[in-house]
Amino acid sequence: MNYQLKMESIIENLGSERPTLLLHACCAPCSSYVLEYLTKFFKITIFYYNPNIYPEKEYNRRLNELKTFLKKQSYDTNITLIEEKYNKDDYDKAILGLETLGEKSKRCYACYKFRLEKAVIYAKEHNFDYFTTTLSISPYKVSDWINEIGSEFEKKYMVNYLYADFKKKNGYKRSLELSSKFNLYRQDYCGCKYSMEAKKRVGNE
Predict the structure, then answer these.
(1) Sorting pLDDT into bands at 50, 70 and 90, what band is 19?
(2) pTM exceeds cut of 0.90
(3) Neighbours of 155 (CB within 10 A)
């Protein structure tokens, strides 16, 4: 399915009022283009919930970079950032038994799912019209899985999910341009300790 076209179809039918959108965000670079695109159509609140990021120093670096970017951006000065508490145990429980699997495996699927469920629960409790995530902008993430999970939670929690594949139509390329423009820190691994270790192994080969 072309999720980017599906998103465009949803946007075309929004009407004149901008609905509220809870946007799960993983970092500033991935948020840059997504915000540039979506702020024209939605009133956005960013939801930062990423206990998969390791170590905690890296988590704080990505969070602080996102805060800095939000101060610099001119898309919408009313964007709010919701920061959930960092608890690595949440991630460890979510991927229990899947630790040895590689990138783009069931481990990653479980990681997408537990973060998106946290987001949709928050969206439900605070009466947001829509929820979605920046994750699909990355070429290293499986967009079909992300949208499959979003669809599941849309039905389960009765909150509209904004389907998307933000890397399409040069979205990822635009995120690189914006990262350069705003001098954003771009991490060289996904975030979890397993992706960090995989990156180190490749570098040592």
Answers:
(1) very high
(2) yes
(3) 9
Give the angle subtended at the CA of 15 by the CAs of 11 and 21, to the nearest 5°: 55
Q: Please report which confidence band the pLDDT of residue 160 belongs to, taking 50, 70 and 90 as the band edges.
A: very high
Distance CA 6, CA 110 (A): 24
Cβ atoms of 59 and 87 closer than 8 Å: no
95-139 pLDDT, tens per residue?
999 998 988 999 999 999 999 999 999 999 999 999 999 999 999
For the chain, give the number of residues.
Answer: 205
Q: Across residues 63-81, what is the average pLDDT?
A: 95
Instruction: Name the residue ranges covered by the structural domains of the chain.
Output: 3-204
Provide the edge-to-edge strand list for the sheet that holds 130-133: 80-83, 43-48, 20-24, 130-133, 160-161
Residue of 3, 8, 73, 9 whose CA lies nearest to 44: 73
Distance CA 8, CA 193 (A): 35
Q: Which CATH class is domain 3-204?
A: alpha beta
Residue 175, both tokens: 């995120």
